[in-house]
From TrEMBL:
Family matches, as PANTHER family: 2-HYDROXYACID DEHYDROGENASE-RELATED, GLYOXYLATE_HYDROXYPYRUVATE REDUCTASE B
PROSITE patterns assigned: D_2_HYDROXYACID_DH_1, D_2_HYDROXYACID_DH_3
Keyword Oxidoreductase annotated: yes
Gene3D superfamilies linked to this entry: NAD(P)-binding Rossmann-like Domain
Keyword annotations from UniProtKB, A to Z: NAD, Oxidoreductase
Family: Belongs to the D-isomer specific 2-hydroxyacid dehydrogenase family.
Protein name: D-glycerate dehydrogenase
Molecular function per GO: glyoxylate reductase (NADPH) activity; hydroxypyruvate reductase [NAD(P)H] activity; NAD binding
Domain D-isomer specific 2-hydroxyacid dehydrogenase catalytic residue range list: 10-329
Tagged with keyword NAD: yes
Cross-referenced InterPro entries: D-isomer_2-hydroxyacid_DH (IPR050223), D-isomer_2_OHA_DH_cat_dom (IPR006139), D-isomer_DH_CS (IPR029753), D-isomer_DH_CS1 (IPR029752), D-isomer_DH_NAD-bd (IPR006140), NAD(P)-bd_dom_sf (IPR036291)
Amino acid sequence: MTNKKRPRVYITRKLPEAVEARMGELFDVELNADDRPRTSAELAAAMRQADVLVPTVGDRIDATLIEQAGPDLKLIACFSNGTDQIDVEAATRRGITVTNTPNVLTEDTADMTMALVLAVPRRLAEGARLLTDTPGDWAGWSPTWMLGRRIWGKKIGIIGMGRIGTAVARRAKAFGLSIHYHNRKRVNPATEQELEATWWDSLDQMLARVDIVSVNCPSTPATFHLLSARRLALLQPTSYIVNTARGDIIDEAALIQFIREGKIAGAGLDVFESAPAINPKLVKLAADGKVVLLPHMGSATIEGRVEMGDKVVINIRTFFDGHRPPNRVLP
Ligand code: DGY
């Protein structure tokens, strides 16, 4: 960095030790040792003092907070791929640059998506829970015991064929699923050919034909409740939904109702509309073996978190060296 003064960097949550150490070498950091989520008032106070804010997934940085930021706050370097928690437009208006950490979460999130694609139809969580919670209930192998649904030969419909969606498609193909996708733009012909993928311009038409839906698009105003009650009604009663993107892309209340009424077979959810609060009706459906719930673990690997930290460091350094940071997010 050419800048003599070390930037004051406020980090909202505890980060991996190696990442905090690296940041401490380069910047004047304020850490969050006990990892308590910061309140809006604490974030506002930090944003009045700091040069850089490093928020994570749960920190809502809305226009009101951004308007209260001090004159020194020049960069919001998100420790996340998604930036739906930031009002990027308001930040840009205030001359504050926003960056994120793309690419390094792709394979881990795709792995977890695939894990849910397998776990729900094959009743993995239910079986595992049975042996730990009520082991006496198992009388040994039986021809009719714990039957799920076959994955091989089924159709997966991927909503959002960006990096993560494409990585999910590669895995799904290896598991014998045929690939269907809905995306604003068609992927390049070579990828489409490699994946033997079918593009659906109409999401509605795709939903009516696939067995498993995987949500892999970002949360934006345009994707809010993209899977609305009307669209969920298009799914077959034997179909499953997996969501490792963001909770608000699905109308969660409608999804719950459809599963309860047997109009959708089940769901694997890593994200929720009101996270970290979980609708108790979902918990009940999980107890009944209809859904598998995970606490937003899609990208949770040690390697991934360190690589996210590396990206945050590069974004901050490049910015204070007077260049455009590599992962700038535009409104
Ligand atoms: C992100 O960084 O946006 C991911 O959702 C974290 O898993």
